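Q: My labmate handed me this sequence with no annotations at all. I'd like to see what the chain might look like in three dimensions before we decide whether it's worth expressing. Could you predict it?
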Amino acid sequence: MKIKRGEIYLVNFGKKYQSELGKIRPVMVLQTDFVNDNLDIAPFKSVLVVPLTTDIKGGRFRFEIEPRDNLEKNSELIINWMCTVDLKRFVSDKPLARLSINELTELKGRLDFFMGYFDY
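A: Here is what I predict for the chain of 120 residues:
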């Protein structure tokens, strides 16, 4: 399976536990394509992702994206829920959609703030 940063896939998080995610939901691949391109030889096939929700709330740690391709509803990336999932949790090998370069650039600013790389 070949995945790329910025692509959106469905992932099965399984049963919800406490404040962790649950169910099948879309995620955006966040990790670098260098790692993505080498998953077939990596001992651990994990992928850093940012989950999406259709429960639009806004805020510094959310990033709204409009429907496109096979992503049918307005959604928000929930930056503070980024997590690592095993590649086997991906429901299909085809992306639902992809973020544009401009969206990835804007998202980077929010990620930098969340990670504490600089203050607004």
